[in-house]
Amino acid sequence: MTAELLLLADWLQAVGCTHVAMESTGVYWRPVYNLLEGLFTLLVVNAQHIKAVPGRKTDVKDAEWIAELLRHGLLRGSFIPSKPQRQLRELTRHRTTLVQDRARVINRLQAVLEDANIKLAAVVTDIRGVSARAMLEALIAGQRDVDALAELARGRLRTKRDQLAEALQGYFTSHHSFLVTEYLSQIDYFDDAIDRVSALIAQHLEAEQEAVALLDTIPGVSQRTAEILLAEIGTDMTRFPSAKHLASWAGMCPGNYDSGGKRLNGKTRKGSRWLRQVLVEAAHVAAKTKGT
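and the corresponding structure tokens:
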């Protein structure tokens, strides 16, 4: 409870404590860190680095062991960004989750259309586009004339009206209409939510527009990717001794485990899944761009 954590802070200050160390277990360290930040030198330590010798294990013994290691200077704290950067991380990660949730709904929408023998995705590039949305809303409204539906195409898609008419020939029932309406409503919600979060992210990065623009010049890195990189890594590179250290921290370096002259394992270490995901996406985009 918050009141108990505040009492802990008062007690630590009363006994002259200057450093506090804790395990980075899930999200349970965060409430403690938030309340003690600024009052003590805090170390959040990887639990794998402070395993005690085998024996009886209790929370009290774990705390005593961590205190003993801290007293002898044997602990190395994990990288914990500043509070503004932690808030930015939460926003970019929330947006990533929203984008993933929207993609799942789009897949469900496509499954319903397949069930109705509507092959719209085979002709249009984006089923969320203006033309596709107009056709879906017309289907929901009861329009079944495929030529009339194809006439709703906009721009270059109008040259594919014959293909659209063929793709829109299906078995679209009231059941399909209900489900498509639900999914379109959910997609609209996610679109609005993503826009709101993106606007707030832009506010947080107002002072870092130069860094965003510079990152955006890297092949495969978009503005959204740049925002995530700044949220996950920050702009202070002094915390990483070299580019190799940064790549290792991100979990993007192959492992090096050999014995007897044989390479036994090359798995990458565990890093931030949010950072790894966006770096892999950027690499794929860059590879495709180079290929074209």
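(Above: one complete record from the training split.) Residues 135 and 149 are 6 Å apart (CA to CA).
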